[in-house]
Model the fold of this input.
Amino acid sequence: MEPRSVGAVRAQTLHFFEPLAFRSGTVLDSYDLVYETYGTLNAAKSNAVLACHALNAAHHVAGYYTEAPDNIGWWDNMIGPGKPVDTEKFFVVGVNNVGGCFGSTGPKSVNPKSGKPYGSSFPVVTVEDWVDAQARLADRLGIASFAAVMGGSLGAMQALQWTIGYPDRIRNAIVVAAAPKLSAQNIAFNEVARQAITTDPDFHGGDYYEHGVVPRRGLRLARMIGHITYLSDDAMMEKFGRALRSDSIQFHFDVDFEIESYLRHQGDKFSEYFDANTYLLITRALDYFDPAAAHDNDLSRAFAAARARFLVVSFTSDWRFAPPRAREIVKALLDNRCDVSYAEIDAPHGHDAFLLDDARYHALVRAYFDGIFERL
Amino acid sequence: MTGQEEGVLSGRSDFQAIASWIRPDSTVLDLGCGDGLLLKYLEQTRNARGYGIDIADANVLACVKNGVNVIQSDLERGLAGFDAGSFDCVILSQTLQAVRRTEEILLEMLRVGREAIVSFPNFGRWDLRLQIALGRMPISPELPYEWYNTPNVHLFTIADFESFCEEHHIRVIERVALNRGRPVRTFANFFGSLAVYRFEKRH
Done:
């Protein structure tokens, strides 16, 4: 075991009976949220941190499972004893968002009304809906206000939404590899991913569960296209170059290049554990997130209610949510005289950099959390 | 005390002068804010609401450690992310001599800030003149570098700055020359080691 790991962890489930109203107009009468916690909530309940997941992750943020020691949390390098987010000081919560496929109520869960999986009938969720559900979880855990809500990419959007939707319940927002809304190109990539899934003959309009199949080919393609956007051109070239699987090109359409093999492997792995309907929902939540839309597209007005302090971090080689997108957020926060610090980390890895070890990035988050701890 | 340490200390001597010109509760933008200690000082003494700008990773980290707002950005690319008149005061403390696009930065300061404050080492001080007269590039507590490792690219005197302001329709509101931390009453360009100016656009 890595010495600075939170160690063996266990997921917990809470059942919620209060109906959850979605922005789409649909209401979920009851639902489950599965979550994990690390560290100890202090007596004042002031040291709670919420770590929000992005597209393909969930509540398993740090540590490992006794029964699956290789299943290490997705932000384990960031969160743990003595790590940038120190679990000896903070009580960290990870939650699988509603609509997910790792235990929280989602399309593959059984709808108590029909006795069948929700499938295509599961409501389209938004970032706002997720944050509402997270707030309900916080209520149940006795957390009136989070010391910090943090996330990268789509997780960062949730942190932003917390500052807008629940300004009195979040004291710091750590917003990494973020954009205030998707660009046309971002939406275009998501659309290709969704088309890959919905045109798979095994999709059955989203109700594939009852046919005993999964749209594996579609999911695989969706993951492959997504994965390309997470890496920078340079990082991909450095890692794979034009390296071949065999000694020479084979004049066929099967795998010649290492990058092809890598993408296929990523796609295969993903299609075995991820639910296709959840992929559709999550990409749509990304597309729809646009806090400025309700304010004449004025992002500054969108943050008028925000009271939190912000740490905004971007990575130079991230072309999915490039630094200028993060600076849009910073500008809006400055316009509202919010406390904000912004760092542009010179990292080669692309969008995925927010998940990787980078000394400058981690030192910054550590220093920021030290400040949060001093102000607890 | 080495020249370098003395430089750091005398480098802080402009803090008080700057703070005395900042009205309570002002919004302040500090360009090239370094470790953020000036901002911290202004927050503590003037209840200022401040943001720093710096390009260096180490300085951004130092600001976060000091609990000061900092935006990592390259001054040489201007202040495009900042609206006109959005700050009460824009400060450039002991950085002007290290900036390449001097004119643009000073004009940007007066676009974004209603007022601006700069401090800079006075290249006209007598000991520097003497060193040049003796045929060497000058070294002083404020300018502790050798010619080959200096970050400074535009060294200038108090007289140079005054004529710059005149030519660029800048009105000097207040000025003070310091000699190793103490105000210089006469012959500022000869005895002053550090100059601090508060100025605005001439209306």
User: Anything to note?
Assistant: Chain B touches chain A at residues 27, 49, 51, 57, 60-61, 63-65, 67-73, 81-83, 86 (CB under 8 Å). Residues 102-112 of chain B form the longest helix (11 residues). Strands of chain B lie at 27-31, 49-54, 70-72, 87-93, 113-121, 170-179, 182-183, 194-201.
